[in-house]
Amino acid sequence: MAEQHFLDITHLAKRFDTEHGELTVFDDVSFGLDKGEFVCIIGHSGCGKSTILNVLAGLDSPSGGEVYMAGKEVRGPSLERGVVFQNYSLLPWRSALSNVEFGVRARFPGWSKSRVREHSLQYLHMVGLKDGAEHRKPSALSGGMRQRVSIARAFATQPQLLLLDEPFGALDALTRGTIQDELLKICAETHQTVFMITHDVDEAILLADRILLMTNGPHARVAESVKVSIERPRDRTTIVHDAGYYPIRTHLVDFLVSRSRELSDRDDAVRDAGHTREVQAEAMAPVEVDPAADARAEAAGFARPHAPDPHAPPPLKAVNGN
Ligand SMILES: Nc1ncnc2c1ncn2[C@@H]1O[C@H](COP(=O)(O)OP(=O)(O)OP(=O)(O)O)[C@@H](O)[C@H]1O
Ligand SMILES: [Mg+2]
Tell me, what DSSP letter sits at residue 86? Predict the structure, then answer.
């Protein structure tokens, strides 16, 4: 397959056999990530976000479709992809420091013991684990502290692709803010490529270059790719004053409140109508939107040429009876 993006996800499908029959979580998810891009994905609970992330990590295999990273098919886990799971997964018999060191040693096998330690401590301190907490085992840490160890481990291994599944969900607002700032700093310095799941629209706007919006499942899909055209560097205290902030925020909230369900109902109708695969694919192709640019253009007194109407249903040009 010709490489188009650093990460290419094509026609990804995932089906599970359940006691109530086959569950199609999604059957045609396609998108790409460029090198250095920060992409967030948002969608209602159960639509399949973690399932996609696990496939990208190589920890789960898809029922159909392909994932390519840097031109190579993803099959199985790799140290080139660092993951922070929704439910932090640490080695329970190792201390926080030892958990991070374990990842760093595997990633940089040539490093001396002292370099591994120094590097691991730097990341543990970054997430606020110090004063003895770094030597405690996971069972002696709070949920938020465990999540911070898991974040430190993923960041410290400096993978080509960082996969984050609601990484800050268990953290208090202050710690969350500090780690978001660190993540912004790391991304600015290293051009880290990140794919992140979040339920927090403000967090997505602060961090992402692009936000993918998923319809409700089953048969979920990526319906929109929302560009976050707010200049960097971004600062949590001032970003809300950017003219593009609320147009993007409103767009995301509208999607979660109504369009995710409306589009999912419409997709069901398109599938039930028995159209060809091509017609279905066209009807369900993701729409690219840039609410901030649209708002700026409107404020300047003109409509952007070809600005897509996000409320318009996906295009349906041809219908046949197949
Ligand atoms: N092993 C499995 N067997 C059967 N169904 C599964 C399995 N794993 C996940 N599912 C189902 O797949 C769907 C998608 O799950 P997934 O965990 O990807 O959702 P999610 O979007 O990450 O949700 P949340 O926001 O709650 O984390 C859900 O309906 C879930 O019940
Ligand atoms: Mg999930």
Answer: S
Ordered DSSP codes for 254-307: HIIIIIHHHHHHHHHHHHHTT--HHHHHHHTPPEEE-HHHHHHHHHTTSPPTT-
Q: Whose CA is nearest to atom 25 of ligand 1?
A: 45
Protein residue with its CA nearest to atom 31 in ligand 1: 46
Q: Say yes or no to pLDDT of 322 above 50.
A: no
CATH 3.40.50.300 range(s) for the chain read 1-80+162-322
Residue 228's φ and ψ, nearest 5 degrees, are -105, 85
Residue 321 pLDDT class (50, 70, 90 cuts): very low
Atom 22 of ligand 1, residue of closest alpha carbon: 50
pLDDT digits (tens, 9 = 90+) for 159-182: 999 999 999 988 889 989 988 998
Class of 1-80+162-322 in CATH: alpha beta
- Counting from 1 in the atom list of ligand 1, the atom nearest the Cα of 17 is 4
Ligand nearest to the CA of 85: 2
Which atom in ligand 1 lies closest to the alpha carbon of residue 44?
25
